[in-house]
Design goal:
Radius of gyration: 18 Å
Strand order of the largest sheet: 1-4-3-2-7-8-11-9-10
Strand content: 5-15%
Shape: globular
Largest sheet: 9 strands, mixed
Distance between the termini: 29 Å
Helix content: 40-55%
Number of domains: 1
Low-confidence stretches: none
Bound molecules: pseudouridine-5'-monophosphate, manganese (II) ion
CATH architecture: 3-Layer(aba) Sandwich
Structural class: alpha/beta
Number of strands: 11
CATH class: Alpha Beta
CATH topology: Indigoidine synthase fold
């Protein structure tokens, strides 16, 4: 693993560090907005008192803390693998480029000693999973590692109640910032409640610390509802998701292609609105994640 100097020094000095993933760059957004977003997210982390560490795999080497040039490369290079847990050995052995999903980024963040990780929306149980068995590895890794993931809930393209059920099975504590219900990525309210609501980063940090102090394994998922200015009404986005899901079925899109396909089609069908929301919510998650990392390091 290569850890950048800035990140390594911050970790040694017990300063707050925030991990960031790279699938959102390579497979979640079009170039150049993906790169602009990744850099804006890093800036938001810095401005809120923490050190950003964008994570990915370059020529088979996991990198913790990419530089600007590397982020640019992740944004435009063709053929970068989307790396979930199972893909690690292939990418490492064959010295490939790998964009790490939430599941893979959790592994690398933990190895580096980073406790807070920011993304857009986690993967989860897909609609129709009772037939396809499509359940993101993100949920399992969240249950296995001592990490806090700040997100805007789970992606709206998923089955939210089933996702919350699996999170419970995996022992993931689900918290929400200020709203009583879990967010559904583009919308503020999925209609399903979380385990607890917190009003300040310090309150969240206290719950994280209690889990660690008591020796409880597993992660904490934080739902940060998208800003009212950018959130999309679920009645509006739901119609678009239904259309995108229908197309995915007709085109027989399966496995790891499903999520990138749906994100892209929803962005096209909404005339770019969903992409604007996605960008805004990741940056906002970065602000909150940095504040939680700061509060945690002070505790
Ligand atoms: N958040 C976003 N855009 C994304 C993702 C998260 O705003 O593209 C990525 C994450 O890397 C997450 C992945 O792990 O989507 C889920 O993929 P899948 O459903 O195939 O597990
Ligand atoms: Mn899947």
């Amino acid at each position: 693993m290569r850890i950048s100097k800035i990140v390594e020094e911050a970790l040694k000095a017990h300063k707050p560090v925030v991990a960031l993933e790279s699938t959102i760059i390579s497979h979640g957004m079009p170039y150049p907005r993906n790169v602009e977003t990744a850099l804006a997210v890093e800036k938001a982390v810095w401005e809120n008192g923490a050190v950003p560490a964008t994570i990915g795999i370059i020529d088979g080497e996991p990198v913790i803390g990419m530089n600007e040039q590397e982020i640019e490369e992740f944004g435009k290079r063709k053929g970068i693998c989307k790396v979930s847990y199972r893909d690690f050995p292939i990418v490492l052995a064959n010295k490939l480029w790998g964009a790490t999903t939430v599941s893979a980024t959790i592994i690398l963040a933990e190895k580096a000693g980073i406790e807070v990780f920011v993304t857009g929306g986690i993967g989860g149980v897909h609609r129709g999973a009772e037939k396809t068995f499509d359940i993101s590895r993100d949920l399992k890794e969240l249950g296995l590692h001592e990490i806090t993931v700040v997100s805007a809930g789970a992606k709206a393209i998923l089955d939210i109640p089933k996702t919350l059920e699996v999170l419970e099975t995996e022992g993931v504590t689900v918290l929400s910032y200020k709203e009583k219900n879990f967010a559904s990525f583009y919308s503020r309210d999925s209609g399903y409640p979380v385990d607890a609501v917190f009003e300040t980063p310090l309150e969240a940090a206290r719950i994280i610390k209690a889990k660690r102090d008591f020796g409880l394994k597993g992660g904490i998922l934080i739902s940060n509802p998208p800003d009212e200015k950018y959130a999309l009404p679920s009645s509006y986005i739901e119609k678009i998701i239904a259309e995108a899901l229908k197309e995915a079925e007709e085109k027989q899109i399966h496995g790891k292609e499903v999520t990138p396909f749906l994100l892209k089609r929803v962005a096209e069908l909404s005339g770019g609105k969903s992409l604007d929301t996605n960008i805004d919510l990741v940056i906002d998650n970065a602000r909150l994640g940095a504040k939680i990392a700061v509060a945690l390091s002070e505790l």
